[in-house]
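Q: Could you fold this chain for me?
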Amino acid sequence: MTVSAQREWTILLYTMADDTALRGFANQTLLDIGRASAEAGSAVKTVAQVTLRHNLCHPIRRYDFEEKSAPMRHIDKAVNLEFLACKDKNPRRNLVEFLRWGQRTYPAKRTCVVLQGHAWGADYTIPAFKLTRPMPVRGRRNDYHLILGSPRSKNHLSNKDLQDTLTCACAGFKFDLLGMDSCLMSMAEILYELHGCADYTVAPEGLGPVRGWPFYPILMKLNRDPSLGPAALGTAILDLYARNYKDWGKGVKLTASLCALEFAGELMIAMQALVPALRSGLRAASTRQAIIHARVACSFFRIPTYVDLVHFCQLLEREPAIRYGSDGAGSNGAGSEIYKACGQVQAALHKRFVQRVALQRGDRDAHGVSIYFPKWRIGAKARLSPWKRIAWTDPMATPVSYDEAIAKIDAAYINHQFADGCGWKEFLLEFLQARLVP
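A: Sure. Below is the predicted structure, expressed as structure tokens.
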């Protein structure tokens, strides 16, 4: 295939649609892109690669929406679009080769990568690490936790996998915009790991609708004004996303944010001040109780182990033991290291790392970035569903022993720059060890 002339934007969509629900919505996305490509001009190029269930014919399909009757192509009867069948190598190589092919074949002034599929934040552990029962050899998987992809298939990437893959694919240059159309991807832990791969990100802080972004209006907006920069495009995506899902899900909390990863270093510096102060605060009864109160009251988005980082800092600041110092001394929080560190975190996030938050639905406690902060009751009776016991390795389950809790946190932060750099993992372990949450 010949290399095309340089365009304003190339959009590279990588979709993991390896379950029934995702396949249906992936088909709708492909139809929306095909419709936009047929109606729009030539300044923007969109290509897609979709991973389907392995038992289907041609499970890895690459779609070029402008190619007509090209050789070696098949027809996807569900959407009546041509695709090129690709060999399934492994999730990392599949993504790297697609991104490299897209950049090489369709060079552009700016590149946007969009990742679609299920995601589970920091807390979905593959049950193969030391404190669990060994799996049969045939079903055994690698020793890492799942971040992007379905847990019932081989098509998943860990946090480290995703970072390494995108770094390898961008070949020394950052992607202008990285869209993660997957739940829980706007986490401090995830975004910090990706700051060397992209300039800006758009992702949900909590849950995201399975039907994904409204691609047709997004692409039509970009085609009308292809000179949009990555921040302006991210803002437009949030506006159209919020408009599309304004009434969706009724009481379900939805929030998505635009983040500028150039400020990741500031966030790390602020967390390096906050976390040691929190760890020291655990030793004093009044400060320890204040941390408990702030954590229990903190806002979350359907899954209670992920909380809004800014809201946690705001609640800490309101605690008398934090605001005036653990001994009651000081003026306006001058005696509290935690109070000052909370201000640093908020300053690093507000209008800097977090540029824009959409779809708050009047919830003032959503500020664009969440963090993994479980409040498990260690030793409590496990809650059983009416039809099955949820394994503690499931993201929705609560460990019932301290060993299980340690294992779950360990698996969430394997070789993790953010957790290792600021000490968040050690803080979580100390928080649990003190049996803090009543």
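A (continued): The first helix runs from residue 20 to 39.
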